[in-house]
Design a protein that fits this description.
Shape: globular
Radius of gyration: 13 Å
Largest sheet: 7 strands, mixed
Distance between the termini: 40 Å
Strand content: over 45%
Order of helices and strands: EEEEEEEEEEE
Helix content: under 10%
Number of helices: 0
Mean pLDDT: 95
Number of strands: 11
């Protein structure tokens, strides 16, 4: 079993930065990803990273967000820069034992952390 705990959310002004952390415990996992659910909308993919360091981003995150991973600490990070009000959402960390990062294919989910970007 894998447990994921997110932290680092909060209130920030547009143009600011936040770094989210996702601490994992339990068995080693391959893919760790970040997803978000804006108010009144469906959950969507943000970024993912494999155990080998391969990264992928949603178009909305490219150039502004950076996903990284510390294998020793079993922690994934999402550095978010130049935040916009449209980035306001609950951000979830998810993990998968296999390959891929499809939203419906992730094996484990955290409870989420709220990010609010004010204009």
């Amino acid at each position: 079993q894998v447990q994921l705990v997110e932290s680092g959310g909060g209130l920030v002004q547009a143009g600011g930065s936040l770094r989210l952390s996702c601490a994992s415990s339990g068995r080693p996992i391959n893919v760790m990803g970040w997803y978000r659910q804006p108010p009144g909308k469906q959950r969507e993919f943000v970024a993912a990273i494999t155990s080998g360091g391969i990264t992928t981003y949603a178009d909305s995150a490219k150039g502004r967000f950076t996903i990284s991973r510390d294998s020793i600490k079993n922690t994934a990070y999402l550095q978010m820069n130049r935040l916009k009000p449209d980035d306001t959402a609950v951000y979830y960390c998810a993990a998968r034992n296999g390959i891929g990062w499809g939203l419906n294919n992730m094996d484990y989910w955290g409870k989420g952390t709220l990010v609010t970007v004010s204009s």
